[in-house]
């Protein structure tokens, strides 16, 4: 442990001691720190370079069943911060579900999940990488303009100390590259992009490859057509498939269940996916973006089956949400300067037995969706209506680009029709393959 981290742990412990002396019955302190640097370019010129650092502390205090959270810069005077937190807690309404986690469940050992790469990349190199991204994308025949390119590096960390005896720290790094370009002219212009994001710098795809893919994706979208309104088989590219699975994760988040704002609130123990599909949440995978050695309450998470053989098995719970629902928590608390809430870690969908090409080959008339437009998802009812762009599928072959059409349905029905391919991409915290959605209503010309 470096001296800086130890200093933050000591600062957290001082906050806890001060809160208890000021009249709190229990308290915890979370220091959330972040550092980032980035460079962006457009049309061969540097548009921006930036650097940012922050260290914020969130102090949560309990007075009986009353709780309050205050946040401030870690360098702030702790006296007024503690006094304000305790005073706020004393006048807050009672929360019968509030409280610290059971000390018997604390993560007691350091677990290195290999989430941090200390590689230093100078700003000059970030500019060079951004230039290389854009140059490669603009070199693709048919690209006519640029939306810009960027390269960045960041690190974030959490230091958590509780009056119940937990003390721990964790950190992760992130390196990213992205570029967006335009093809076509006038009203026929189309935009697309490509990107890569990794925990370790050495794992990033080459900037030239990212840029080339962005250019090729964009040119392929030129001169799109509308399709007649009707019923079509729909296939989601992994980019949009991750968003669909994200809706499932949001719908089984314990906070949504407690508020009764989820279309899945009454479906526990019932099928919500095809029998061949499962979804797990795995917090302890090495070098994966959603991993964490302990959660926002100091607990060591374990692999959790969310959906097993199609059947909904578990909500995503922190301690308070679990108590509200009359269930044991499952160490899925996230922590920010705003407080504690349940969240997933690494969500993994069971892959299918066929390749994406084989999935598409089985479609006679359909649309391969590469982009979703708009926010037409009602998480209370499951009603789903989104604008789409993509490519027509005719007799198992991707043909012409499609845009300005809308798909509509209900998530509960859509999920039961899913057919997964086998192309899992582990770069992201939601690992979902190409997904066939079966027949859906398409509003077009």
What does this structure look like?
- It comes from Aureimonas glaciei.
- One of its GO terms (biological process) is proteolysis.
- This protein is an alpha+beta fold and 445 residues long.
- It folds into 2 domains: 3-217, 2-Layer Sandwich (PmbA/TldD fold), CATH 3.30.2290.10; 224-445, no CATH class.
- 23% of the residues lie in helices and 37% in strands.
- It has 9 helices and 19 strands.
- The strands form 4 sheets. Strands 3-2-1-4-5-6 form a 6-stranded antiparallel β-sheet.
- Strand 9 (304-308) and strand 10 (311-312) form a beta hairpin.
- Helix 3 packs parallel to helix 4.
- The longest helix is centred in the first third of the chain and has 19 residues, at 3-21.
- The protein is globular, with a radius of gyration of 24 Å.
- The model has no long low-confidence stretch (mean pLDDT 95).
Give a brief rundown of this model.
With 445 residues, the protein is an alpha+beta fold. 23% of the residues lie in helices and 37% in strands.
Query: Globular, elongated, flat, extended or rod-shaped: what is the shape?
Result: globular
Which structural class do you get from the secondary structure elements?
alpha+beta
Radius of gyration, in angstroms, nearest whole number: 24 Å
Please state the average pLDDT score: 95
Percent strand equals 35-45%
Number of domains: 2
What oligomeric state do these chains adopt? single chain
The helix content is: 10-25%
Low-confidence stretches: none
Got a strand count? 19
Number of helices: 9
Strand order of the largest sheet: 3-2-1-4-5-6
**Cα separation of the termini:** 62 Å
Largest sheet: 6 strands, antiparallel
GO cellular component, one term: cytosol
Domain Metalloprotease TldD/E N-terminal: 27-89
Family: Belongs to the peptidase U62 family.
GO molecular function, one term: metallopeptidase activity
């Amino acid at each position: 442990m470096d001296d800086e981290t130890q200093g933050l742990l000591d600062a957290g412990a001082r906050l806890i001691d001060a809160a208890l002396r000021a009249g709190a019955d229990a308290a915890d302190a979370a220091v959330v720190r972040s550092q980032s640097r980035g460079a962006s370019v457009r049309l061969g010129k540097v548009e921006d370079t930036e650097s940012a650092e922050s260290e914020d502390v969130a102090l949560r205090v309990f007075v009986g069943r009353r709780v309050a959270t205050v946040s401030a810069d870690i360098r702030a005077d702790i006296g007024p911060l503690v006094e304000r937190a305790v005073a706020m807690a004393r006048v807050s309404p009672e929360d019968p579900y509030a409280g610290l986690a059971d000390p018997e469940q604390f993560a007691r050992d350091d677990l290195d999940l290999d989430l941090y790469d200390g590689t230093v990349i100078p700003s000059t190199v970030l500019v060079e990488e951004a230039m290389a991204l854009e140059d490669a994308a603009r070199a693709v025949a048919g690209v006519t303009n640029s939306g810009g390119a960027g390269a960045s590096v960041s690190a974030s960390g959490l230091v958590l100390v509780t009056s119940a005896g937990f003390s721990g720290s964790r950190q992760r790094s992130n390196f990213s590259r992205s570029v967006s370009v335009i093809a076509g002219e006038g009203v026929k212009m189309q935009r697309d992009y490509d990107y890569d994001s990794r925990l370790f710098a050495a794992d990033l795809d080459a900037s030239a490859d990212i840029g080339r893919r962005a250019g090729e994706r964009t040119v392929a979208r030129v001169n799109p057509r509308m399709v007649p309104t009707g019923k079509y088989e729909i296939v989601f590219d992994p980019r949009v498939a991750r968003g669909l699975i994200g809706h499932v994760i949001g719908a089984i988040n314990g906070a949504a269940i407690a508020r009764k704002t989820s279309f899945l609130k009454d479906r526990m123990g019932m099928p919500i996916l095809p029998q061949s599909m499962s979804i797990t949440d795995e917090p302890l995978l090495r070098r994966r973006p959603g991993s964490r050695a302990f959660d926002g309450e100091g607990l060591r998470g374990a692999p959790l089956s969310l959906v097993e053989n199609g059947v909904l098995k578990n909500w995503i719970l922190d301690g308070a949400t679990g108590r509200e629902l009359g269930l044991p928590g499952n160490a899925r608390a996230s922590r920010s300067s705003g407080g504690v809430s349940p969240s997933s870690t690494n969500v993994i969908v069971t892959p299918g037995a066929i390749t994406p090409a084989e999935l598409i080959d089985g479609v006679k008339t359909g649309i391969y969706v590469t982009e979703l437009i708009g926010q037409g998802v009602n998480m209370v009812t499951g009603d789903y209506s989104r604008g789409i762009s993509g490519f027509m599928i005719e007799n198992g072959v991707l043909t012409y680009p499609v845009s300005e059409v809308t798909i509509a349905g209900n998530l509960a029905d859509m999920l039961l029709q899913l057919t997964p391919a086998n192309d899992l991409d582990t770069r992201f915290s939601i690992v979902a393959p190409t997904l066939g959605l079966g027949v859906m209503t398409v509003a077009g010309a």
